[in-house]
UniProtKB/TrEMBL annotation:
Its EC number is 3.6.1.7. Belongs to the acylphosphatase family. The gene is LOC106124848. It comes from Papilio xuthus (Asian swallowtail butterfly). The keyword Hydrolase applies. This is acylphosphatase. GO terms for molecular function: acylphosphatase activity. It catalyses: an acyl phosphate + H2O = a carboxylate + phosphate + H(+). Pfam families: Acylphosphatase (PF00708). Keywords: Hydrolase. Residues 11-101 form the Acylphosphatase-like domain. PROSITE patterns: ACYLPHOSPHATASE_3.
Length: 101
């Protein structure tokens, strides 16, 4: 997203591939999102990946996306993180961040 304004509100969907289930990835993801003021959701898939949607200011999203792509929860092994459906927002669609089942 080519904007330099770190206060721009954005939404993005993600999918994390690797050994990311069974290591509390969704819990750690929710904890970090809440700490950063990011709204949205996260869940495990039947295919062994983690998917979700994030909404927040560009600066906080960059931090979260770096965590999703490189760090993750203790004991996980991230192969890659795919991002799609970037959207500029005027307001958030979610009030909080949740783990879906």
């Amino acid at each position: 997203m080519g904007t330099d304004d770190l206060n721009t509100l954005l939404s993005v969907e993600f999918e994390v591939f690797g050994q990311v289930q069974g290591c509390f990835f969704t819990k750690y993801c929710k904890d970090l999102a809440l700490q950063l003021g990011i709204t949205g959701w996260v869940k495990n898939t039947k295919m062994g990946t983690i998917v979700g949607k994030l909404q927040g200011r560009k600066a906080e999203l960059e931090h979260m996306l770096d965590w999703l792509s490189t760090t993750g929860s203790p004991g996980c092994k991230i192969d890659r993180c795919e991002l799609r459906n970037w959207v500029y927002l005027t307001r958030f669609d979610y009030n909080d961040f949740s783990i879906r089942f």
